[in-house]
Amino acid sequence: MMRAIAALLLATCASADYALTLTQTIRDETALAYAVEARLYPEDPAKLFVTNRGGGVSVWDVATPASPALYATWPGPPRGVEGQDRLGDLLILAELGDAPDSALATLNATTLEQLGRAPLSDSGALHCKLYKGQYAIVTTGLTSNTTARRRVTAVDVADAAAPREVASVEVWEGRGCAEAVSIVGDVAFVGSYCTPDIATVDLTGLPDSLRVLAATQDAAFENMVSATYGASYNASANAPPAYLFSASYAAPGGVVVWDGARMANGSLAGVRRL
């Protein structure tokens, strides 16, 4: 496994023609040990949060893109973390590993002080998103246990010091590896990384249940990684996004665009490939 993803590329966009210009490259073998997900949040857009499969989280001050500086770190478990999301001072992280290591961690987003941890009954925690600031929706697809990696789990984080798992559902029967998750209204959009599957999951039954609304396959849908709409952005917009963009890693590749309004009702219609 390549561990050399220890660098971030910062680019600036010229608004006239949308051209990206490389501004700076950050290299740090410790703070960027297998960097996997980099996020900016509206609470403090000058801070870049980066999760690492080599362990923990690093936060970078990118107020001056040409001179980024390491601001803070959280060492995390040696197994590493990947998924992240934020709302206000609450930061959630998906801890990688098989049960009992598979978990959802809660941190203070400003100080990176760990507040709590919820071990998951399913192995393979991978990505996570906040729903209404009360629940963390977690995909559990990164595990060698082929019967466990197609589930989505909900964790109640209303009490960040004592998060607890409340519901779980199998997204695809007998296939799939749940990876990316995005929240559109009251629906979770979930993509698989080992099969060309996508699905929508109804969140309105929480804390009692999760329910699959629709699921479908297409050759272009393998390894669907949807745009990282997070709780902060959904809250600031106060509405589902008009569109959801997903990268398609398999042939023919490209970008798949979903109709956000239809997805908010659980529909997988309205797809367009770019």
Gist of the model:
The chain has helices at residues 231-237, 260-263; strands at residues 7-14, 19-27, 35-40, 47-52, 57-61, 69-74, 81-87, 90-95, 103-108, 114-119, 125-131, 135-140, 151-156, 164-170, 178-184, 187-192, 197-202, 211-217, 224-226, 243-248, 255-259, 272-273. It is mostly beta strands. Strand 20 (243-248) and strand 21 (255-259) form a beta hairpin.
What is the overall silhouette?
Answer: globular
Tally of DSSP β-strands: 22
**Spatial strand sequence of the major β-sheet:** 3-4-5-6
Mean pLDDT figure: 85
Compute the number of helices.
2
Helix content: under 10%
Name the helix and strand elements from N-terminus to C-terminus, one letter apiece.
EEEEEEEEEEEEEEEEEEEHEEHE
- Distance between the first and last residues' Cα: 31 Å
Task: Report the uncertain regions.
Answer: 1-5
Biggest sheet overview: 4 strands, antiparallel
Provide the structure class.
mainly beta
Strand residues, percent: over 45%
Radius of gyration, Cα only, in angstroms?
18 Å
Structure commentary:
This protein has 274 residues and is mainly β. Helix content is 4%, strand content 49%. It is built from two helices and 22 strands. It has a four-stranded antiparallel β-sheet with strand order 3-4-5-6, with no helix packed on it. Strands 7-8-9-10 form a four-stranded antiparallel β-sheet. A hairpin with a 2-residue loop joins strand 15 and strand 16. The two termini are 31 Å apart.
How would you summarize the topology of this molecule?
Elements: E1 7-14, E2 19-27, E3 35-40, E4 47-52, E5 57-61, E6 69-74, E7 81-87, E8 90-95, E9 103-108, E10 114-119, E11 125-131, E12 135-140, E13 151-156, E14 164-170, E15 178-184, E16 187-192, E17 197-202, E18 211-217, E19 224-226, H1 231-237, E20 243-248, E21 255-259, H2 260-263, E22 272-273
Antiparallel strand pairs: 1-2, 3-4, 4-5, 5-6, 7-8, 8-9, 9-10, 11-12, 12-13, 13-14, 15-16, 16-17, 17-18, 19-20, 20-21, 21-22
